[in-house]
Design brief:
Elements: E1 3-11, E2 14-21, H1 25-31, E3 39-44, E4 47-52
Antiparallel strand pairs: 1-2, 3-4
């Protein structure tokens, strides 16, 4: 897997980017994620954790 940087837009003289990671379908299935679900992201040190958003 690689982190990809994509140009998003330019506003005045500043460029804005977004970053993307393609997660293989096998991993998505193992995690139990489904298309369109809301996810929570948490950063712990140099680790990014992604989990299903809990409904409150």
């Amino acid at each position: 897997m690689k982190l990809q940087k994509r140009f998003l837009r330019k506003h005045r003289d500043k460029d804005y980017f977004k970053f993307m990671v393609n997660i293989p379908p096998k991993i998505i299935k193992q995690a139990g994620f489904k298309e369109g679900e809301d996810l929570d992201i948490k950063v712990e040190g140099k680790t990014i954790k992604i989990k299903k958003k809990t409904e409150n």
